[in-house]
Amino acid sequence: MKDEEFLRTKVPMTKAEVRAVSIDKLQLNGKSNLLDVGAGTGSVSIQAAVEFPDLQVTSIEKNPDAIDIMTKNINQFHTENISLIKTNAPEGIPDEDFDAIFVGGSGSNLKEIITDCLAHLKKGGALVLNFILIENAMTAYQVLMAENVNDLEMTQVDVSKWHALGKGHYFKHHNPSIVLSSTKG
């Protein structure tokens, strides 16, 4: 899905190329439910819900501005298979098990969110986290190294897009994103 299809505000959004890698790492084929923690504009939730219409997506977000724009995006894409919950993580994570969990935002509770997500992740389920800060990615990596996870992988997605400038063109750089993925052992 193109970024331009989403309604936007100042709320951060996972860009198309990073979404593509993250959704692939979530291994959603044949899965029944996905949890999106720190859903922001809802781009990951919405793309997963559109690409996998039998998937039930639970999205949690605490920021009122993000809740507002995500609600508008859910309506725009007619994604009735998304439940949006206004809550903080990790305490607001629903008491159920999920086939896959995506963490796009963690605030200052990263360690607790990872631990709680793993407690709610089915065996063999994928946990995927996105970061722009190297320090947060390394903290998450160290937490996951101490847990019962398999296939722990860190990937940097670095995207530049072609733009016109006067009579010429250049590649406009986006912030690199780190995609940390694993499966529960």
UniProtKB/TrEMBL annotation:
Q: How far does the signal peptide extend, from start to end residue?
A: none
Q: Does the keyword Ligase apply?
A: no
Question: What pathway is this protein said to act in by its record?
Answer: Cofactor biosynthesis; adenosylcobalamin biosynthesis
Annotated GO biological processes are: cobalamin biosynthetic process; methylation
The record's annotation in InterPro entries points to: Cbl_synth_MTase_CbiT, Cobalamin_biosynth_MTase, SAM-dependent_MTases_sf, Small_mtfrase_dom
Where the record annotates domain Methyltransferase small, the positions are 24-155
Give yes or no: UniProt keyword Transferase.
Answer: yes
GO MF, any single term: protein methyltransferase activity
Q: Name the source's superkingdom.
A: Bacteria
Protein keywords: Cobalamin biosynthesis, Methyltransferase, S-adenosyl-L-methionine, Transferase
Q: Which Pfam families match?
A: MTS
Name of this protein: Precorrin-6Y C5,15-methyltransferase, CbiT subunit
